[in-house]
Amino acid sequence: MSLCIDLIDDALPQTQCRQCGYDGCRAYAQAIVEGAPINRCAPGGREGIARLAELTDRPVLELDPDYGHEAPFAVARIDATRCIGCRLCAVACPVGSITGAPKRLFAVIEETCTGCALCVAPCPMDCVELVELERSWTREDARRAREAYLTTQRLRSAMLSKKDAEKEHDDATKKAVLDDVMARVRAMMHPR
């Protein structure tokens, strides 16, 4: 059976949490195709490992405790009384579920939060917490999360490209001004 990265990726929960040790679900899917263990996805839990075992024709294993533990679905929440608007949580969010005004207040859009917990550690005010919900993560949630992740990555890439282009333009402008100044200085020092 030839393994397909797309099939493996589709079997993963798309939380993009990186608990597996890879840079998101697609990177873990590629690693599985290349031989990585199938039991490193804590958000997928036993059910996810069983799906991966079936797809890879490998035995079902227990979740490797070095990569987390199976837990109920949770979303991030920000304590508004302690948020200083530093944006570190928003930058860490792989699916763009955190929004706000710099130096003011940030909040989580719970409907799109994957519960990845990547926003918790960078918060200098310790005001981000995970709150368990009374529901399970579904395949439909995973589909929406993948779309949100891909959209967020495209937007971030476009913003970086724009910033790079602006910097290149600014650098060229500065060089042209400096060249002009240097030409004038040379002309003043060596009149004809």
Could you give a short description of this structure?
Among the domains are: 5-67, Orthogonal Bundle (3-methyladenine DNA Glycosylase II, Chain A, domain 3); 74-132, Alpha-Beta Plaits, CATH 3.30.70. Helix content is 44%, strand content 8%. The chain has helices spanning 5-11, 25-33, 45-56, 88-92, 139-189; strands spanning 74-78, 98-100, 106-108, 128-132.
Please explain how this structure is put together.
With 192 residues, the chain is mainly alpha-helical. Among the domains are: 5-67, 3-methyladenine DNA Glycosylase II, Chain A, domain 3 (Orthogonal Bundle); 74-132, Alpha-Beta Plaits (2-Layer Sandwich). It contains five helices and four strands. The strands form two sheets. A two-stranded antiparallel ribbon has the order 1-4. Strands 2-3 form a two-stranded antiparallel sheet. A hairpin with a 5-residue loop joins strand 2 (98-100) and strand 3 (106-108). Helix 1 (5-11) packs across helix 2 (25-33). The N and C termini lie far apart (81 Å).
